[in-house]
Automatic annotation (TrEMBL):
The keyword Cytoplasm does not apply. Pfam families: TMP-TENI. GO terms for biological process: thiamine biosynthetic process. GO terms for cellular component: cytoplasm. InterPro entries: Aldolase_TIM (IPR013785), ThiamineP_synth_sf (IPR036206), ThiamineP_synth_TenI (IPR022998). Keywords: Thiamine biosynthesis. GO terms for molecular function: thiamine-phosphate diphosphorylase activity. This is Thiamine phosphate synthase.
């Protein structure tokens, strides 16, 4: 599985074009942005009007917006799943950074977790990546995990195939389509040792 995550910025036509050029080989996109609900609603409608598959959209946190578009995939920040949220009607994922967060996600009905960062990345500037011991420990838990953080054509060979997939932010939006396809191809052929 390859998930892309939008950079945390105002999304525009360039982001739409990037997604449209990657739509055939990505499994989903988490729409994580500081945009207002009305602005994001308009942006999503424009993306859908250009042919982006609705089933590949993953709304970040905004339950009402997901309901309005009848989008069933929703992602939450760590420990941010609403108390009375009916996860049975959704495909819920959550960012997780510890075994405790993984247990919370499982209790809330999440079907997978986003775990990282595995490698140095501008998104987490100055923060150390997860250690091999930390990665092994979370992979021993029962929630399927998607790896994120500094994943590119060089680092992908070091991502354990105990992860059910990988996620990319800047690597997906700031690199050529051929680079993203290469990362996906390497991932699909077999993982690494981390």
């Amino acid at each position: 599985m390859l998930i892309v995550i939008t950079p945390f910025e105002i999304l525009n036509e360039q982001h739409q074009q990037c997604l449209l050029h990657r739509a055939s080989f990505i499994d989903g996109v988490i729409l994580r942005t500081p945009m207002s609900d009305p602005a994001l609603k308009l942006w999503i409608q424009m993306l859908l009007n250009q042919g982006f598959p609705k089933h590949k959209l993953i709304i970040h946190t905004r339950v009402a917006l997901a309901q309005e578009f009848d989008i069933k995939r929703i992602h939450f920040r760590e420990y941010d799943i609403p108390a009375h949220f009916n996860t049975k009607a959704w495909q819920v994922s959550m960012s997780v950074h510890s075994p405790k967060a993984i247990r919370y996600a499982l209790d809330k009905g999440a079907i997978w977790g986003l775990y990282g960062h595995l490698f140095q990345t501008e998104s987490k500037h100055g923060l150390r990546p997860r250690t091999k011991a930390e990665v092994r420990h979370v992979l021993a838990q029962s929630l399927p995990l998607v790896a994120v953080g500094g994943i590119n054509a060089t680092t992908i060979v070091n991502v354990s195939h105990q992860f059910i997939g990988i996620a990319m932010i800047r690597g997906a939006f700031n690199q050529k389509v051929s680079h993203v396809k290469q990362v996906r191809s390497i991932w699909m052929k077999g993982g690494g040792q981390l």
